[in-house]
Amino acid sequence: MSSPAFADHGTVQAVRDPAELAISSAGLTKRFRSGQVAVNAVDLAVPAGSVYGFLGPNGSGKTTTIRLLLGLIGPTSGSHELLGEPMPGGSARVLPRVGALVEGPAFHPYLSGRANLRRLDAADRTVDPATARVRIDAALDRVGLRAAAEKRYRHYSLGMRQRLAIAGALLRPRDLLILDEPTNGLDPQGTREVRTLLGTLAATGTTVVLSTHLLSEVEQICTHVGVMHLGNLVAQGTLSELRARSAARAEVETPTPERAAATLRVLGLSDVSSAGGQVSALLGDVEPEKVVAALVHADVPVRGFAVRRAGLEEMFVQLTGEGFDVSG
Amino acid sequence: MSVADLRQSSDPARVPSGGPVGAVVYRPHAVSSRFFRSELLLIFGRRRNWVGGLILATVPILIAIAVKVSPPSPGGGGMNFLNQITQNGIFVALSALTLEMPLFLPLAVAAIAGDTVAGEAHLGTLRYLLTVPVDRTRLLVVKFGAIAVFALVATLLVALVGAMLGLALFGGGPVVTLSGTTLPFWTGAARLLLVIAYITMCMTALGAIGLFVSTLTEQPIGATIAILVLALGSEIMDAIPQLSVIHEYLPTHYWAAFGDLLRDPISTAAVVPGIWSALAYTAIFGAAAWARFGGRDVTS
Ligand SMILES: Nc1ncnc2c1ncn2[C@@H]1O[C@H](COP(=O)(O)OP(=O)(O)O)[C@@H](O)[C@H]1O
Ligand SMILES: [Mg+2]
Per the UniProt record, which residue ranges are transmembrane (chain B) (predicted)? Predict the structure, then answer.
């Protein structure tokens, strides 16, 4: 259980007791035969009970990481644990407790939605066959597919397919859900429904990992976030930790900008600039209250004072060097 | 968003309410046939495969009708079994098996075996089966078992349609063996069952080769064609006398030996090596499929 998995790798995730982690990885790396390093030394730390947004532009390595986590592909180097069990050795014990959606839905086209779920359930040796019918109906109900259950999968719309895949992950109670872009192809109503569903599941203690390229999705339902960029996990932590990490600027509104700027420089603030009656500077390690005290002490007339942080969106653009809908 | 006192509140992460995650222990049932039955349902519920079955069944029907309409002259040349049909309807089954052995039966097995792993990979369902989780070895065992059942059903289909129709059109009676002796009807029928078992073994061996080929690709049609090319290529090489050194190692070499089961007494000179050959091919390619699929990256 002890590993350097949670050593600082440019992340803000503090070292946690591994027992509390639903997912932990140490230096997880995947180099494809093409030579491309799709996942590069990723140290994931997904706390149990969290809703973890796995955020990154298209092609940043989210799906490859999920395949690694589930043991579908072997790592070039590194290791990981799911729910405290080392993988892939523990997959027979741990995977029944994990519901997953990987790179979109996939089912037999000439079978009905229900028959497809029945097949998935039949493949699971660890469930009670006697309850299959009830569990399948419940899963179909949860994603609102009961009415279309008897239709052939090939006649499903993209949104219905996505719903069926989510139903497949919910055929039994899970401790961990790993969902790769679950709202792809869903209409706004469906997206809302899925978010509500995930909220309900998280409220009962299920850890949810939600991979997405949409920042808004993370902001709306996630407690934690990990940011992928070109195969690297460039940031990880709670949403608030990440917000706190973004560079904060002190902004002073004053009729004497020169004096204010001089005071800020003396305090050690950098990147001081003034425009009109506004002086702004990077706070760095200086506490805002010290700045206010220093300004007052220097007899700078302060009309307004604010600490402004970059929004998450700006921050993620900084981290990944691009907008979030751009493929990478 | 701004303001000095916007100090973030402490971690909003929810801590799991219950005990440690995953206190529940799941205990796999020692043996469960559910997945295997689901696999059979997939094969025998598929319309494409019903069409294939219909084609297999057409051959004995054609033979029976053709012989009824225009009976072969007694003692004339041509296929041994065909000439016997008018005396005993059970020979419709043997004639049909003889005619389907080189192409139609291997084609049917190739279609099913090629689809096993490559078909699931092509659809993407493979990744979902593996995350259920289905152990990779169990997946191969179930897929192989389904191929074997299909090989039996396909052979039975040809034989039974032939036997029933033949008996209905020409009646039964003592069976004249290839050695010229005569066996009572039920002994002859038992010989037909041996023939079915032998052909099923040969087809299952081809199926094991097919299972291996199916782990090499994500294109089920490609796998099917490759398996068929292997079978037909083997038959062609078997027909070239200059290659006689390798003949006995060809997977199809002993296929035609099922005729020996209709001699009196049964000639085992080719049947026994045929059984060993089928078992060897099954074991070797089953192991190869396992070695190939066991650690393969599933990126479909
Ligand atoms: N099987 C593969 N072989 C080679 N490269 C791959 C393979 N799968 C994915 N990649 C590459 O790895 C990178 C990450 O892909 P992926 O994990 O699918 O990203 P995401 O899910 O974040 O969009 C991409 O550049 C992709 O082209
Ligand atoms: Mg992806």
Answer: 50-70, 90-118, 139-172, 192-213, 266-291
